[in-house]
Each structure stands twice: as structure tokens, then as C-alpha cells.
Amino acid sequence: MNPSPRTRTVIGCSLLAMTALGAGLTACGTDGNPLSAEPFDAADQISVNTPTGGGEKADPDKPLEITTEDGDGRITDVTAVDAAGRRVTGELSSDGTRWHSTSVLAADARYTVRVSTEDEDGAPGRRVVAFDTGKPVGRDLNVVFGPESGAYGVGQPVTAQLSRPVRDRTERAVVERGLHVDSEPAVPGAWYWVDDKELHYRPENYWPAHATIRVHSTLDGVRIGDRLRGTAARPLALAIGDRVIAVTDAAAHRMTVYKNDTEIQQMPVTTGKPGFETRNGVKVVLAKQYFVRMRGTTIGISEDSDDSYDLPVYYATRVTWSGEYVHAAPWSVDSQGSENVSHGCTGMSTENAEWFYDHIHEGDVVKVVNSNGDPMEPFGNGYGDWNVPWSVWRKGTALTPPPPPQDPSRLTPTAI
Fold first, then answer.
1. Which entry of 200, 216, 253, 327 is annotated as an active-site residue?
2. Which of 130, 238, 106 is closest to 178 using CA atoms?
3. Average pLDDT over residues 115-125
């Protein structure tokens, strides 16, 4: 009976080793060690729980499993990669008899698996198998990254809008692992779940000036939850410009503009009067409009009110969706630098507004301090992301353990 390929390898090494003793020749490798021979074919040593031929496809919802046959030798290493370069993570049992995947397989994908083994004598074996996974089953989860690719300031967050709500924390973790944000120079950052369908990403501090940010998804075909799978997403590239930060001191009625931490302009302004105070905190430039017609009715002021207005406004830089701008206000020049008389916007002379308009860009930072207004909303009214402390922001990711529950007894105020 012919020996198996693995048996032939061992016998051949033994014979060559005997020859080497008599003739001074090197056998089975450059060091004369029988174990340095080329790996034998481990096809008879292991089994894989996926179909590898005949047109049948593997169920992507089932974990990949590799085992040794009847305890024959042990598995030493496994690598599994799909055609897109996505690796499958896994765990190997302590005795080396079983390896199983710990990350989900992608649907409708081609995988190549390389398995390294040892037999009972320590001789190395190897097997390479390939298999296909089946088509996705169930609903799609689409991801749209924002903003549009282009040039932005250091305050621009990255957003991810989902087509379906994801509420389960485990499923959220799968989504996050598939959403990648890479920056050059590299800075650590984190996703924050604004709600079940929207995530924002930012670093601890503003992006470095002149950074390049690339965003992409690897969720295509990946099982996220029961009958829910990811789809391909359009990648995103952001080019960050200079570090431009405008700080408005509402109490001093002045705006100071910094570029790369150097003051480049200071100008008198007016902000929101009592009852219409400008929001405190960090805002991010959303858009610039040379002309905007502003009406009091858009912010809830009745046309019959003494505060009603309907004005043509020029050099308007938008910082909230609810209608807060930095803009030219020639009608209030006499008050600029001395009192706050606007309905919440930051007003300045036409000349100063034109300068600001020319030097500010989408994604730049506009910060208001010393106003009696409410804090800027973190989400929903523009980009107030930077008003969330980093320690709180990090709790908004599904990839870290949730904070421990608070002791209700410690929440009760004590008498002073």
C-alpha cells in the first residue's frame, strides 16, 4: 500500500538522513534537521466546515471552524482573508485541535484560508482552501458619510448617516468596526452615536492644520444583526486648511480672529440683545452666502411684534441651522463695540463682514464666550460637537464598556 503524502515525507527524510551519515551530505533542508523539510499536505489532517467545491456556497452567518481529524497533530496558525483584503479574526484552542472565527464573515465574498499544522513528530504541514459565501439575506444597511469631499476647517466633524436604526449595542459595535477614519498626521478619535441612525466622529481636539482625512467603510456584505447586512459606501476625503478660530466676546462686544494661533484681526461687533442672546460655545461654519433675506418670522417673531424685521443681509456666514449668522449689519454700526442689539446673530460693519467672509471657510471654528445665551446644542442645530467634553464623548461609542450605573443614594443632595 502506498503511504500517504505525509507519511512519504517522514520516510523520505529518514532515508536521506541515513545517507547523509554515510556520505557527509545535507538532507531535508539546509541544517540537516528532518523537521526543516517542506511542509507536507495537511489535507488529511484537518477539516473545514465550509464547502470548497461543487458550486455550493458557505453560509456567512455561520462561524468558520477548522478542526484536526481524530486528534491527529495540532493546528499552529490560521489566516483567513477575503478578496477585498479583510481579515477574519479567530481563536485557537489551547490544545491546537480547533480554531473558530470570532468576527463575522462577509456575504457574497471569496475567502482564502491558510492553515499551518504540526504532526505528532513536529513536522510542519500546510493546507490552503478557498470558498465562497452566499448572497446577503435580509435587509440592507446603507451608510452615507458627510460632509461632501472637499476642503474644510479644523472644526469639521465626520458624520455617518444610516439607512436603518441600529439600537443593539453589539450591532452598533459591528457598525463602528466597519467605519474607518484615517488622518495624516494621525490623531486618535472616536465615533459618537447621536441617535440610532447617526454617528459623528472627531478627535479629542480640533484636527491638525493641513491634515488629510480619509473615511471608508468595510461593511459591504457584513452581517450586522438578524437579517441585517451592510452595503458598499462611498468613501470620503477631507483636506483640512489653516487653523482659523474666531472668538466673539459678547460682553466686550469684540471678535478676535486667529490663524494658526496668531491673531490676524480684531473688530467691534454686536450680539444678541436680552431675550435673543447669542448662544455660548463652539460652533462650526456651515455655509457662506453673499446675500440672505432675513425675516423675523423664521425664528418665531410675529409680523405684528415690535421686534419684527425683514432685511436684505450681505456677507452672511451661517453657524446654526436655526438662523444664527455672522453678517454685515450696517444699521447697527453705532452699537457695535458697545452694546448688544441683534436678534441673536453677530453683526459687524459691511467692511468687516466682507473681510470675515473672505477669510473664513466651511468647517472653521466660531466660538462665543461671555454671552447670557443658552449653550450651543451639541447636535441637531449645526455642529456643536466640540462642546461635548472628551470624557463624555468617549462614552458615546459602542466599542468601550458602558459607564457603571450610579448609586442612587449618591445622587441625593446633602445639606450644607
1. 327
2. 106
3. 91
pLDDT at res. 227: 83
- The type of residue at 215 is V
**Ramachandran angles phi, psi of 122, nearest 5°:** 90, 5
Residue corresponding to grid cell 459618537: 192
Q: Which of 253, 345, 359, 361 is catalytic?
A: 345
* Whether residue 264 sits in one domain with residue 216: no
Confidence class for position 138, pLDDT limits 50, 70, 90: confident
Residue 210 annotated among the catalytic residues of the structure: no
* Domain edge (last residue) among 116, 132, 148: 132
Average pLDDT score over the chain: 87
Compute the distance between CA of residue 121 and CA of residue 54 in angstroms, rounded to an integer: 35
| Half-sphere exposure of residue 270: CA atoms within 13 angstroms, side-chain side | 21
Rg, the chain, Cα only: 32
Do residues 310 and 375 share a domain?
yes
**251-267 per-position pLDDT tens digit:** 999 999 999 999 999 99
Contacts of 85 (CB under 8 A, 6+ apart): none
Q: Which residue is it, cell 458550486?
A: 55
Q: Is 162 left (phi over 0), alpha (psi -120 to 50) or beta?
A: beta
In a domain, 32, yes or no: no
Q: DSSP class of residue 115?
A: E
- 385 and 256 in a common domain: yes
Q: What percent of the chain has pLDDT over 90?
A: 69
Residue 20 falls inside a structural domain: no
Q: Could you tell me if 111 and 57 lie in one domain?
A: yes
Q: Verify whether residue 345 is a known catalytic residue.
A: yes
> Is 154 domain-assigned?
yes
CATH number reported for the structural domain that contains residue 367 in this entry: 2.40.440.10
C-alpha cell at 121: 513528530
* Rounded Cα distance, 128 and 144, in Å: 37
Residues with Cβ < 8 Å from 76, sequence gap 6 or more? 96, 116, 117, 118, 124
Per the structure, the complete domain to which residue 144 belongs is given by: 139-240
The answer to whether position 9 is within a domain reads no
pLDDT for residue 406: 53
Using CA atoms in the order 85, 86, 89, 90, what is the torsion angle rounded to 10 degrees? -70
Beta carbons of 269 and 346 less than 8 angstroms apart? yes
Is 249 strand, coil or helix? strand
Q: Is residue 363 left, alpha or beta, with left meaning phi > 0 and alpha meaning psi from -120 to 50?
A: left
Is 91 found in the same domain as 170?
no
Task: Look up residue 382 and give its DSSP letter.
Answer: S
